[in-house]
Specification:
heterodimer, A: about 110 residues, mainly alpha, elongated, B: about 110 residues, 4 helices
């Protein structure tokens, strides 16, 4: 029973990884690509590691997977935000059909 | 023309997925690893093609995340513990690398 639940979590994680990478290729703009591909961290890879935790239980490998889940949940949004901010500051324009750009409007007020 | 490109890509991806699911006679875990390898290839395509340097930085970040998941699947498939050590080390290294690449793209030095 444990193995079946673990396999279900791993299959869901791999599906979300594939969808995130298809979005990384498919989307037209760098910000859209970032938004699509960062989704494959939290539900994709953390789903796979949660399946590993269920499969092994609270042994050495399972606890290591749990630590890795917590570390990824803490650091992946930080790195994504840093990359998006650096991209915007280095002067990459938005896609032509984007609606609004609040960071550009607030830049004068901030600096 | 745009629709034709969309259709070609869709048929290519769906064909590969259906061939792996239905026609290859290998174990189910090996099929899961092949699906993950397809996403590796997609992110490598973005690394090679991406118009701006920031695209390549994002694609390498996602590549590191995929390697962590691949180590998890290998740990389940082979039943060995030390693949999770590789996963934790790769997570640390990927985070530091992404922050350094963000600093580099922004055009500042590292102690600023």
């Amino acid at each position: 029973m444990n193995e079946i639940i673990a396999l279900i979590f791993i299959v869901v994680g791999i599906t979300f990884d594939m969808f995130g990478c298809i979005g990384l290729v498919r989307m037209p703009d760098i910000y859209n690509r970032l938004q699509a591909s960062t989704k494959c961290v939290t539900l994709g890879t953390c789903g796979i590691l949660f399946g590993v935790l269920i499969k092994f239980g609270f042994t050495a490998a399972g606890v290591k997977a749990f630590i890795c889940i917590i570390f990824l949940l803490l650091t992946a949004p930080v790195s994504a935000h840093a990359l998006a901010r650096a991209t915007h500051r280095s002067g990459v324009k938005l896609w032509g059909k984007s609606v609004c750009d609040k960071y550009e409007e607030d830049k004068d007020a901030l600096s | 023309m745009r629709f034709v490109r969309w259709l070609l890509g869709f048929v290519f991806l769906a064909g590969i997925i259906i061939i792996i699911f239905a026609y290859l006679r290998i174990e189910p875990q090996a099929k899961l690893m092949l699906y993950l390898l397809i996403s590796f290839l997609l992110s490598l395509f973005r690394v090679l093609k991406g118009p701006t340097p920031a695209d390549r930085a994002i694609a390498t970040d996602i590549f590191g995340i995929l390697v962590i998941g691949f180590c998890g699947i290998l740990a389940v498939y082979t039943g060995r513990d030390w693949y999770m050590d590789i996963a934790i080390a790769w997570a640390l290294q990927s985070f530091i690398g992404a922050l350094a690449l963000a600093k580099f793209i922004e055009g500042k030095s590292f102690d600023e």
